[in-house]
Write a sequence for this structure.
C-alpha cells in the first residue's frame, strides 16, 4: 500500500519539527539486537514491552500480514540521547528476505563516530562484515558501512574535525 502523493500547495510550508526522535527497525531477535547495540554503541534499554494482541483493523491500516503478531517493542537510547526502537514480529507469512539496497525501502542507520581506525578495529574484532574501505565525502567527512549480525546495514560517519 502506497500513500497518495501530497499535492503542491503554496499555503503549506515545512512542518515545524525539531529533529529526529528515533529510528525504528525490525529485528529477528530482540535480545540479540539489544546486546549488539549495547556492546557496540553503548545503548541502554528505556522501555521493553510485550504488547497485547493487535487488532485486525490496526494490521490493515499499517499493512501487516493478518497472521503476524508483534512479540516485542524495545526502545534503546544512545549515550547522546538519540534512540532506536526495535520491533520483533512473528508470523507464518513474514518474509526474512532482505530487499536489495536499491529497492524502495529503508536501507540503513547512520551513526556519528570518532576515530575511524579504532572503531573499525572494534567492528572487525566482533567479526562483523565491513562493506567498504572508508570513503571521503566532499565535506571531508569519512564514512563506512557494516552489517549487523542479522544483516541490516549500519553506516559509521566520521566528521572531518574528528
Amino acid at each position: 500500500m502506497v500513500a497518495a502523493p501530497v499535492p503542491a500547495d503554496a499555503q503549506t510550508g515545512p512542518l515545524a519539527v525539531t529533529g529526529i526522535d528515533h529510528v525504528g527497525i525490525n529485528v529477528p531477535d530482540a535480545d540479540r539486537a539489544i546486546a549488539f547495540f549495547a556492546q557496540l554503541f553503548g545503548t541502554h534499554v528505556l522501555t521493553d514491552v510485550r504488547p497485547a494482541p493487535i487488532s485486525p483493523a490496526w494490521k490493515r491500516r499499517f499493512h501487516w500480514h493478518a497472521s503476524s503478531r508483534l512479540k516485542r517493542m524495545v526502545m534503546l537510547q544512545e549515550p547522546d540521547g538519540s534512540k532506536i526502537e526495535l520491533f520483533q514480529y512473528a508470523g507464518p507469512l513474514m518474509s526474512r528476505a532482505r530487499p536489495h539496497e536499491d529497492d524502495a525501502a529503508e536501507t540503513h542507520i547512520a551513526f556519528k563516530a570518532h576515530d575511524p581506525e579504532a572503531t573499525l578495529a572494534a567492528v572487525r574484532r566482533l567479526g562483523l562484515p565491513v562493506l567498504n574501505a572508508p570513503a571521503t565525502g566532499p565535506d571531508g567527512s569519512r564514512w563506512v558501512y557494516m552489517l549487523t549480525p542479522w544483516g541490516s546495514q549500519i553506516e559509521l560517519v566520521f566528521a572531518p574535525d574528528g
Q: What stands out?
A: The chain has a mean pLDDT of 89.
